[in-house]
Amino acid sequence: MQKLQDKVALITGGSKGIGFGIAEALLKQGIKVAITSRSLASAEAAAQKLGKDVLPLEADVKDFSSQQKVIHQIIAKWGKLDFLIANAGIGHFASIEDLSISDWNDTIDTNLTGVFYSIKAALPELKKSTGYIFTIASLAGTNFFAGGAAYNASKFGLVGFTQAIMLDLRQYGIKVSTIMPGSVSTHFNEHQPDTEKDAWKIQPSDMGQMVVDLLNMHPRVLPSKVEVRPTKTANT
């Protein structure tokens, strides 16, 4: 188990949902956390809920210079970066006949290219700290479904991308894992979480605990791909 106190983490898309749940869990371990959102107001509102040792930042993962700026702000604040959780993601769902070019590009640019940008910008600092990278993929990265062309492509791509860079970065002592959750109780795709109706789903706090557990594994162990799904279904 490594010492997590005073480590520094960046969570993209950390103002709500899975990202927020991970931020809560890391803060409980004494980790300093920077969270990004495309809306600074949203990031600041989340930071107020999370408490101290949180740096709210405005950034768009589709903009590489925006990701570079985030890293510079973190280094100016805390002097280092130990963990990156590339969580920001969106979903556009439609048949190939109805899927618009703009929705296709938005999905790929956010869920796949955006992760590349986040990691590319953070990599120099993560090499210094021999850090840990997490990408938040989905079971949709291995299970395809009708209407999921853009989302499936982005998540299949993200899983392959993450596994490849895991091999690239082992030589620097950097660990890389992709977490592939099934149904999670979040605001994803305009869903409104309901405590009772969504009780069967994975909760954001569960995702946070999983990241903490992976960070606490012995340095010699690398769970490179983790699939996680609800124990029960909505009808059981």
Low-confidence stretches: none
- Order of SSEs: EHEHEHEHEHEHE
**How many beta strands in the DSSP annotation?**
7
Taking the alpha carbons of the first and last residues, their distance comes to 37 Å
Question: Can you walk through the features of this model?
Answer:
The protein is an alpha/beta fold and 236 residues long. The protein is 42% helix and 15% strand. It is built from 6 helices and 7 strands. It has helices at residues 17-28, 40-50, 64-78, 101-129, 149-169, 204-215; strands spanning 8-11, 32-37, 54-58, 83-86, 132-136, 175-181, 225-228. A 7-stranded parallel beta sheet has the order 3-2-1-4-5-6-7, sandwiched between helices. The model has no long low-confidence stretch (mean pLDDT 94).
Chain-wise SSE layout:
Elements (H helix, E strand, L loop, with lengths): L7 E4 L5 H12 L3 E6 L2 H11 L3 E5 L5 H15 L4 E4 L14 H29 L2 E5 L12 H21 L5 E7 L22 H12 L9 E4 L8
Parallel strand pairs: 1-2, 1-4, 2-3, 4-5, 5-6, 6-7
Helix pairs in contact: 1-6, 3-4, 4-5
Core attributes:
236 residues, alpha/beta, seven-stranded parallel β-sheet, 6 helices
Brief summary:
The chain is of the alpha/beta class.
